[in-house]
Amino acid sequence: MNDEKWTIKLNGTKSPLNGNIKKGIEIDDLDKIAKELGTNKSDLLNDNIIKDIHVKQIKIWHGEYIDSIQFIYKVITNDKTYSINGDKHGGNGGKETIIKFEDDEHILAISGQYGDTSHGNLDRLKFINYIPSKKHVKLCTISGKYDTILFDMSPATGTVYTCFFGKCTHDSITNIGMYEGSIQNQSQQFQQSQQLQQLSDLLFPSKPYDFPVLKQEIVRLKYQELAPQVRNEKIKFEELTTNLKTKTGGLENVVDLLLDAQKEAIKNNDQSIQGELNAYKKILESKNLTKDELQILLSKQTELNQLEERLANLQINEGLANCK
């Protein structure tokens, strides 16, 4: 086993807030850490108090969505090592899942899903962690009931995620963000800057993949996770389409024309088709379909298209067309 370990220096940089930013009150574990260390958050960030910080454990309570979350941290100062329990944020419901971290395990990226205005909670979280002493990637996924808006977040090259902030209500977590920490030292064998950038490119596949060892492992896991989700969403979409067609009084073909027009608009980024879409909507609204029903149908088509594109990119870029 490689003895390489990382020391993480809190640098004060915050990730964007991911989730329904209009819902919930602000929460920040750095306030709790500062209190435990007998200082305030501003001094904690500016006075070089923390020499090393990383997550020891994450407790997540979940059911249909993420009910609540609690992070536990290991914090090292000049003269002492602390184990600090962040506050439990959110509600009191849900089943508890505990993610235990190894001594040198760090969060490299987070992805998930959250609801729109209909409920606005975090529905799913996936932590992509790295253990440098083992050169091993670990994926930890917590899922709720809903398949909603997707998000991905990754820190800058040469950093990892160290401390949680976000938003919550009295019964759920609505937003997640993380403070970044800079990697201070690692062995010469691990070319941190280059490989972390490549790993980030892999997790968010808008860039070419160049890191074959970790690439194959994670891409295959992502494919195996995404493929059944695409199949399920396609079944739901087809059922929704069929149900709406039964209400059109013989104008099923107009539903097909509407969906074909939107698909063409998405494919070619063609705003000129908007007039055609509006015309089909008016016809269908005159046949007992509501504006909300049509908007839900088109939104589901867009979401399915995005999922299918992500799956296709994995197949094309990685040659995983036959992956099961």
From TrEMBL:
GO molecular function, one term: carbohydrate binding
Alphabetic keyword roster: Coiled coil, Lectin
Keyword field contains Coiled coil: yes
Residue stretches in coiled coil: 297-324
Domain of life: Eukaryota
Pfam family membership, one: Jacalin
Domain Jacalin-type lectin intervals: 54-179
Matches recorded under InterPro entries: Jacalin-like_lectin_dom (IPR001229), Jacalin-like_lectin_dom_sf (IPR036404)
Keyword Cytoplasm: no
Protein name, per record: Jacalin-like lectin domain protein
Species this protein is from: Gigaspora margarita
